Amino acid sequence: MFGSGAFDYINVLNKAADVKVYRNEVISNNIANVDTPNYKRKDVLFEENLQRALENASDGMGSAATLKQKVANIDLNQAKEVTYICHSGLSYRQDGNNVDMATEQTELAANQIQYQALVDSMTQEFSRIRSVLGN
After folding, report:
1. Residue 36: which residues within 8 A CB-CB, separation 6 or more?
2. Predicted pLDDT at 12
């Protein structure tokens, strides 16, 4: 994490990108266990926690904060990723497994697109900073 206020937005994007990498691993693990009896698919909860952390961030004076102020004051420790088991009582097959390959492939593709968008946003932010510095 960068300590300067100029990097507040980049810090949030970086945290989100890290979670996307982790979620990619979780989805890949689901795919690897598609034939494992009684395996239950896992997923990662993050966006809701990030939203809650942004809502909890204030402008430091007790009044309603702008998005910029919220990003500057966010406690990224509140925006933790949580791995959970999806529909633990649900099974698509008689062997107790609830992994659906079509769902996993769709989730993997969506996650990769979101990751690329986050990386592109970070690249744009660094370009803005570089242009301000005159490079």
Report:
1. 97
2. 92
Question: CB-hemisphere CA count at 13 Å for 104?
Answer: 19
Q: What is the pTM of this model?
A: 0.82
CB 75 within 8 A of CB 53: yes
CA dist 67 → 7, 46, 51, 54, 111 (Å): 14, 19, 11, 8, 24
83: number of Cβ within 10 Å:
14
Distance of CA 11 to CAs 18, 34, 43, 54, 94, Å? 11, 35, 23, 13, 45
pLDDT of residue 54: 85
Enter the tokens of residue 70. Answer: 């919220």
**SS3 assignment for 6-21:** HHHHHHHHHHHHHHHH
pLDDT along the chain (135 residues), means of 10: 70 94 98 95 94 78 68 86 86 89 96 97 90 79
